[in-house]
Amino acid sequence: MKIGFLGLGQMGRGMAANLVRAGHEVTVWNRSPGKADDLVSLGATLAKRPVDAAGGEVVLSMLADDAAVEAVVYGAGGIAGAPALHVGHSTIGIALADRLAADAGEDRYVSAPVFGRPPAAEAGKLFVVAAGSGVALDRCEPLFEAIGQRSFRVGEAPSAANLVKLSGNFMIMAAVEAMAEAMTLAEKGGVPRGTLLEVLTGTLFGAPIYQTYGDILLEDRFRPAGFAAPLGLKDMTLADAAATRLGASMPVLGIVRDHLRALIAAEGPDIDWAAVALSVRRGAGL
Ligand code: NAP
């Protein structure tokens, strides 16, 4: 399929590479063009403007946040009005997803945020959460197969997928907070973090989220950031906006969002969101 890919950050690079490897004819664009070199070596074509990558059947975007997506769609050289079906993989708010869908028209915009960190993107093992019209989603299926291990259809309104993604990220952050608090408690009482983790992940908490983040907390693997704390704070803020819009009370969300703020203030932005554990430990005098 002739496609475009916009945004070659930590996630986008691996996703675009897997689309090239799957045999698609891929034109890529990134704000900082140097990041496209490896993909061009792999066989992709480099576009000068986002719209130059949106002349084929589908254009996929994987950008930092709402502001980045707005710039790439509605800014100079943006893809608004281009013929391609736009598949938005970025984690953005539900209001922007609704706007993109309304402006693009039926069958022309799909939200498809993903679960999985950069190594999963590189390995083509993401989970894709998609929403949009059935016709549009059918067209995307071979692309989702190239980037992910499984895709889910969660509704006709594209913003349904963003709501699922934001809910999931809130649950990840709440799980990390809970693990960090439990590990700190154990450590204060003389039980090594690793011992606690071994017991809990080997009994009641065997889910991938506890395994993956448990190891990160155990080894203090916070730099380089796989998922940077400012992106995590962005997601908690978007979840909060959704909660306000839909009238849902989420007290735990407020706690994890503030811990992310404190983490970024204390450590700077270039740190993984799991490093909220550092704030938790400091709060216990460790
Ligand atoms: P990243 O490495 O920071 O990459 C961000 C991308 O957005 C880069 O290509 C960057 O371009 C581009 N960008 C930022 N602001 C822009 C603007 N104003 N105009 C145009 N382009 C702009 O982030 P990432 O980790 O790949 O994450 C991308 C998205 O996936 C985010 O929405 C994130 O929440 C979501 N996500 C991340 C993970 C993860 O574990 N990392 C997992 C699931 C979902 P430059 O190269 O020029 O800076």
Key terms:
single chain; 286 residues; alpha/beta; Rossmann fold; N-(1-d-carboxylethyl)-l-norvaline Dehydrogenase, domain 2; six-stranded parallel β-sheet; 53% helix; binds NADP nicotinamide-adenine-dinucleotide phosphate
Task: Walk me through the structure.
- This protein is of the alpha/beta class and 286 residues long.
- It folds into two domains: 2-157, Rossmann fold (3-Layer(aba) Sandwich); 163-283, N-(1-d-carboxylethyl)-l-norvaline Dehydrogenase, domain 2 (Orthogonal Bundle).
- It is 53% helix and 13% strand.
- It is built from twelve helices and nine strands.
- The chain has helices at 10-21, 37-42, 66-74, 94-104, 118-123, 134-147, 159-188, 193-201, 208-219, 229-246, 251-267, 276-283; strands at 2-6, 25-29, 45-46, 58-61, 85-88, 109-111, 114-115, 126-130, 148-153.
- The strands form two sheets. The chain has a six-stranded parallel β-sheet with strand order 3-2-1-4-5-6, sandwiched between helices. A three-stranded mixed β-sheet has the order 7-8-9.
- Helix 11 (251-267) crosses helix 12 (276-283).
- The termini are far apart.
- The model has no long low-confidence stretch (mean pLDDT 97).
- Residues 7-12, 30-32, 35, 62-65, 67-68, 71-72, 90-91, 114, 117-118, 226-227, 231, 235 line the site of NADP nicotinamide-adenine-dinucleotide phosphate.
